[in-house]
Amino acid sequence: MNDALRKLLANPRVWRGQVQAGDQGWQGLASGYPKLDQQLPGGGWPLNALTEILLEHYGTGELQLLMPALAHLSQPRDDAAEAGWIAWVAPPFEPYPPALQQWGVNLSRVLIVRPKKSAEVLWAAEQALSSGTCVAVLLWPSALDDVASRRLQLAAEKGQSWAIAFRSIKALSQPSAAALRIRLSAGDKGTDLGILKSRGGRPAIVRDYAG
Questions:
Q1: How far is CA 149 from CA 50, 152, 156, in A?
Q2: Three-state SS for 24?
């Protein structure tokens, strides 16, 4: 195998059809929900990548879905290094500190970014992701086309950060460069989660993922 081909196959954006993501050493971040982790390559959220969460309206359980992982990321690492920042860019609500603390999130590592213009949301998120100081960046963009999603994906890889974009279900038919794309909806027994796109995985439905 020549050097050019070896470098190409080492690129995390290249998927080899006969190999699953877990076989390539991709270790995901545990979500805190075993039903979900069983369906995700690597056994958890894809780090250093973009995750999109599509929902009909806010309050469908999207924050509960992320809290165990964010709580873990907000704590100091085993090597005693200081934990990175968790940035919230343009949240449509005021985060409730007592609820975050109850989930175990270290509030001293939380940043709230409120751009003055909607056009600045993606710019702020991209800067935070590529900075190398944020372990996760949550954003609520008014629009996110294929080009913008690719920029976020590349910024997440560069800064070794986890990007989470919340989008309307109306964006379901739009293309995206996200490594993971999921849909949340209210089910009979709780919140159902549909995996629409998963790098190295396949579509799946997780009924009452927190149950």
A1: 8, 5, 11
A2: helix
CATH T-level topology, domain 33-206: Rossmann fold (3.40.50)
Interacting residues of 103 by C-beta distance below 8 A, sequence separation 6+:
67, 68, 70, 71
Residue 81 has phi, psi (to 5 degrees) of -70, 150
Q: Parse the chain into domains and list their residue ranges.
A: 33-206
Q: Indicate if the pLDDT at residue 9 is higher than 70.
A: no
The single residue listed with the structure tokens 């999603």 is: 149
| pLDDT value for 178 | 94
Mean per-residue pLDDT, 173-177: 90
* pTM for this predicted structure: 0.84
Assess contact for 161 and 50: CB atoms under 8 A.
no
